[in-house]
């Protein structure tokens, strides 16, 4: 199916974004629709036979219906939009985008001059009316009401003319005009005043959360120093091709992924990993875009085009996180659509039915119904729930943890079982000689290095590297070297047969040798029919891994499982050292996936996470409840397949991710319970005449402010 991406420059209202997304989704020409407010983009899948031009026109008309000031344009395939700060910088209370402005929302952290003037004038008129208490009192109240509420009234009229009745503008207008009619002047003005304060605070909260994530956009380079025959030339990163060489000076951000060909430097990787300690980069090392060259001049050969570089993949993933909504967010959106018209209908019934039944005067029941309407606004839920997930994703990104969406945060907080891949995740993925058991250890190491020198096997390379590091005895001359698959190597030295391999190789020659029972792969050696000793080659456990696993236990993980293709003895030794509950060894890649599927089929609400290195674990990462790629710096497969990416090689980061996810979920539930409880209480009190308009104001704007403040708390 054909896809389209439409840019909506200037769209900043979450409420209207939801309405636009819903309206476009109902079009016959569309199948899947996702509106990303942070990127200001609408992505949709076209139905079969739908014409792109026609769909674009209908979408533009739909957007203009809700947001006439928004610039609607068709994004070019493969292009990236980063115009996150090119929006209205005036206040939400006074700025307009044109005569047909439907509403305004600020993303400034405070009031502009127009807003200060508006609030000062409105408050002056309101205080004068309260203190005057004479013939001009009504005019002063009306003046203050118009100053605070003119834009709300205008938007309500515009939306009603377009068939959009049940929104916050309609509710505020209806309730406050009704309050004016029954003589509650001060209450009507105060409702509008508090509503505008609430709008400004909401705008500040959204801006603060956007900044916590879009701060990552600072890692996107604007220019690159390209090395040419004429010398360094400043160009845009899109102009640099694979194989070109670029120059990065001290203090500059590395713009593109590549291999360092000249120079060395300390690199600040905190933008990618959340790690404050710089890394030392030298010739031959991989340099990743987004890192800062702190103190050296680097010449880098580019290995990836700009669109495929690490910095762009990270930005794309973080930006798209806002579009992947949790089940709670989707429920709240659907709930608000039903909740508001139901409450308006109940308010009408409350105003009309009791007087008809002779239960009191119409004015009394009208007042109660107006209070009912003020309380009914679902702003606290509609704003605070997505804002909480937004803040949670931002908190995670600041800790070097990339979460792909609110749904993944939701799932992560229910994880109680973690399945680990061993090599590259719990261990370093690099073999080294850990022990030599022989009477003449130096001679054995030299003999093994000579025999293994021509092999590319990781174990053979570990033996050779160990000899280069610690060998003092010259390597003997060997002849007739033969490699026997599944057994080892045979050769001749000084006229005698040499055997290097597993116990089966020596047993075949009738040579007895002691069994090594520790962790690691063992190379047994014999010469001239006599046992010489053995070398133990093992994959080292990552530094800090044991402490990281303990922090997971403390975070509530009740079961930890290790999957590996290693031999059982080695796997069980590593599992015991790490405190694993279960170890499954000698697994092929398809066996790992089958094991993962077995855990997913277990009964209960507990979720299972799989943690892999993101290089060869993509199928298992994708198949788990939550796929977590660890140490994924430089791994494209990790960012594509995983739901959560830990940018550092630290298991302890997973405990941080769990804490953030659970705190986010707890704050969401707190806001939902608090908002609904307060609103339900005031609705009941208003129905029986015990609630005042001031209580209604608190139940609407006050609850929204408290919920938003709660959403913004540190995760």
From TrEMBL:
Q: Which organism is it from?
A: Anaerotignum lactatifermentans
The family database entries (PANTHER family) matched by this protein are listed as: CADMIUM/ZINC-TRANSPORTING ATPASE HMA2-RELATED, CADMIUM_ZINC-TRANSPORTING ATPASE HMA4-RELATED
Gene3D superfamilies named in the record: 3.30.70.100, Calcium-transporting ATPase, cytoplasmic domain N, Calcium-transporting ATPase, cytoplasmic transduction domain A, HAD superfamily/HAD-like
Signal peptide (UniProt feature, chain positions): none
Instruction: Give, as one word, the top-level EC class.
Output: translocase
Membrane topology, record value: Multi-pass membrane protein
Coiled coil where? none
| Source superkingdom | Bacteria
SUPFAM superfamilies named in the record: Calcium ATPase, transduction domain A (SSF81653), Calcium ATPase, transmembrane domain M (SSF81665), HAD-like (SSF56784), HMA, heavy metal-associated domain (SSF55008)
Database matches in NCBIfam families: ATPase-IB2_Cd (TIGR01512), ATPase-IB_hvy (TIGR01525), ATPase_P-type (TIGR01494)
Where would you find this protein in the cell? Cell membrane; Membrane
Q: Look up keyword Nucleotide-binding and say if it applies.
A: yes
E.C. no: 7.2.2.21
Name of protein:
Cd(2+)-exporting ATPase
- What is the reaction catalyzed? Cd(2+)(in) + ATP + H2O = Cd(2+)(out) + ADP + phosphate + H(+)
InterPro entries per record: ATPase_P-typ_cyto_dom_N (IPR023299), ATPase_P-typ_P_site (IPR018303), ATPase_P-typ_TM_dom_sf (IPR023298), ATPase_P-typ_transduc_dom_A_sf (IPR008250), ATPase_P-type_domA (IPR059000), Cation_Transport_ATPase_IB (IPR051014), HAD-like_sf (IPR036412), HAD_sf (IPR023214)
Q: Which residues form the HMA domain?
A: 2-67
Q: Where are the transmembrane segments?
A: 116-133, 335-357, 369-391, 667-687, 693-712
Family, as annotated: Belongs to the cation transport ATPase (P-type) (TC 3.A.3) family. Type IB subfamily.
Q: Which UniProt keywords apply?
A: ATP-binding, Cadmium, Cell membrane, Membrane, Metal-binding, Nucleotide-binding, Transmembrane, Transmembrane helix
């Amino acid at each position: 199916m054909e896809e389209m991406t439409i840019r909506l420059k200037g769209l900043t209202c979450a409420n209207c974004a939801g309405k636009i997304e819903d309206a476009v989704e109902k079009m016959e020409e569309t199948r899947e629709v996702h509106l990303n407010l942070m990127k200001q983009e609408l992505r949709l899948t076209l139905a079969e036979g739908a014409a792109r031009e026609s769909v674009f026109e209908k979408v533009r008309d739909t957007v203009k219906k809700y947001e006439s000031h928004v610039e609607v344009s068709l994004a070019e395939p493969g292009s990236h939009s980063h115009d996150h700060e090119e929006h209205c910088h005036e206040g939400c209370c006074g700025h307009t985008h044109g005569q047909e402005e439907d509403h305004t929302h600020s993303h400034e952290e405070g009031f502009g001059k127009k807003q200060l003037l508006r609030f000062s004038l409105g408050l002056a008129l309101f205080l004068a009316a309260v203190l005057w208490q004479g013939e001009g009192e009504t005019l002063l109240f009306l003046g203050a009401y118009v100053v605070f509420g003119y834009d709300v009234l205008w938007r309500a009229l515009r939306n009603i003319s377009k068939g959009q009745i049940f929104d916050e503008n309609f509710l505020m207008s209806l309730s406050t005009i009704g309050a004016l009619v029954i003589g509650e002047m001060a209450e009507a003005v105060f409702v509008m005043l508090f509503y505008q304060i609430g709008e400004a605070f909401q705008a500040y909260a959204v801006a603060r959360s956007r900044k916590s994530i879009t701060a990552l956009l600072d890692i996107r380079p604007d220019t690159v120093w390209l090395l040419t025959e004429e010398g360094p030339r400043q160009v845009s990163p899109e102009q640099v091709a694979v194989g070109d060489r670029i120059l990065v000076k001290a203090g500059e951000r590395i713009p593109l992924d590549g291999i360092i060909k000249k120079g060395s430097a300390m690199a600040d990787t905190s933008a990618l990993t959340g790690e404050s300690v710089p890394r030392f980069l030298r010739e031959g090392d991989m340099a990743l875009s987004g890192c800062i060259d702190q103190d050296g001049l680097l010449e880098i050969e580019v290995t990836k085009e700009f669109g495929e570089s690490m910095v762009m993949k990270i930005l794309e993933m973080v930006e798209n996180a806002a579009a992947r909504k949790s089940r709670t967010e989707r429920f709240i959106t659907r709930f608000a659509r039903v909740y508001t018209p139901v409450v308006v209908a109940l308010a009408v019934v409350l105003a009309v039915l009791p007087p008809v039944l002779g239960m009191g005067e119409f004015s009394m029941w009208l007042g109660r119904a107006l209070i009912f309407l003020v309380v009914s606004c679902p702003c606290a839920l509609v704003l605070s729930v997505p804002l909480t997930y937004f803040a949670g994703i931002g908190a995670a990104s600041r800790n070097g943890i990339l979460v792909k969406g609110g749904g993944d945060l939701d799932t992560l907080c229910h994880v109680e079982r973690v399945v680990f891949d061993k090599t590259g995740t719990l261990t370093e993925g690099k073999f080294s000689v850990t022990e030599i058991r022989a009477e003449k250890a130096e001679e054995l190491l030299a003999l093994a290095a000579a025999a293994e020198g021509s092999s590319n096997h990781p174990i053979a390379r570990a033996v050779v590297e160990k000899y280069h590091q610690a060998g003092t005895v010259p390597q003997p001359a060997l002849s007739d070297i033969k490699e026997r698959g599944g057994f080892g190597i045979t050769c001749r030295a000084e006229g005698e047969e040499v055997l290097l391999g597993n116990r089966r190789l020596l047993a075949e020659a009738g040579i007895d040798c002691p069994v090594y029972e520790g962790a690691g792969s063992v190379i047994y050696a014999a010469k001239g029919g006599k046992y010489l000793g053995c070398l133990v080659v093992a994959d080292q456990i990552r530094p800090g891994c044991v402490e990281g696993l303990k922090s997971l236990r403390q975070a509530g993980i009740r079961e930890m499982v290790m999957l590996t293709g290693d031999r059982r003895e080695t796997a069980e030794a590593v599992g015991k050292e790490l405190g694993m509950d279960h170890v499954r060894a000698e697994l092929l890649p398809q066996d790992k996936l089958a094991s993962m599927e077995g855990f997913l089929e277990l009964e209960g609400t507990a979720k299972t996470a799989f943690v892999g290195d993101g290089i060869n674990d993509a199928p298992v990462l994708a198949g788990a409840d939550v796929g977590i790629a660890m140490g994924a710096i430089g791994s494209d497969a990790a960012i594509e397949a995983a739901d959560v990416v830990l940018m550092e090689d630290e298991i302890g980061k997973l405990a941080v991710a769990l804490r953030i996810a659970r705190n986010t979920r707890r704050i969401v539930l707190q806001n939902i319970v608090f908002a609904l409880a307060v609103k339900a209480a005031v609705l009941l009190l208003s129905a029986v005449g015990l609630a005042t308009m001031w209580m209604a104001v608190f139940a609407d704007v006050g609850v929204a402010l408290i919920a938003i403040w709660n959403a913004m708390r540190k995760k």
